[in-house]
Amino acid sequence: MIKHQRTLCKKIHFKGIGLHTGYSVNLSLVPAPPDTGIRFRRTDLKNFEIEAIRSHVAKVSYATTLMKKGVMISTVEHLLSALYGLDIDNLYLDVDSMEVPILDGSGTLFMKEIDKIGIVEQNALRKYLVVEKPIEVRQEDKVAGVYPDAARRVTYIIDFEHKAIGHQEIHMELTPETYCREIGLARTFGFVSDVEYLKSLGLIRGGSLDNAVVLDDSGIVDNDLRYPDEFVRHKLLDLLGDISLTGYPIIGKLYAERAGHAIHTALADRIVRHTDHYRICTLEDLEAPIANAM
After folding, report:
1. Cα–Cα distance between 152 and 173 in angstroms, integer?
2. Active-site annotation holds for 4
3. Which of 20, 56, 234, 261 is catalytic?
């Protein structure tokens, strides 16, 4: 695991459209000092800051939206997932619209550009959220939870009636390498049968086959999967973006079954509130008892 906090070596710029608004948007990832955390800045609103933390979660219908003092930033989960998966602690995310660009519907382009410019370690020690007692959210057959574990493990299980998806599971230890190889490439997905309903709600105005895997009754529409089980991998991608709103990387086992943004963010909220179920510490703190015993 990584000992020190990390940020980017230099600024990165992206341009795209919002999945739900369809608006053109510019996004810049800007290096930030230690202990800044991840902060959105609405450059179209005098750099108004919205910290990427669970207390700012406003809506979770088909995407995760943050809001502070009436100012919103929507569809944050893919970007936050990439930052969490790559173990990046401190960044300003400058956005000139109310939604993060969807790009190709995954974390791929974020990962590629970050790999090009590099990540730098900072002088401050990284703090982890170390799970000591289970914390769960359950809604009927849906569940999300975190459980004590010495490593950073993740599990996601989905079960869809659609024949192209069905039952899928993924279990892995989370590192920047496994995130890039196993999770970050997985794209968001949706169903043709839902398109008109979502459009009636003012959503997916920027959706297309270029930024989502779309399914109809017969199967996948004009596309090829990046993984045979790309659907469950994308659900895990979403979970990591949402759970990053706890504000700390988690040491423990993260588990979700038949979940979604609402349960993901409810879990993030419950984790932060159950302070007697975990501790916040550095890797040096974790290693100290072993060193003292010797």
Report:
1. 6
2. no
3. 261
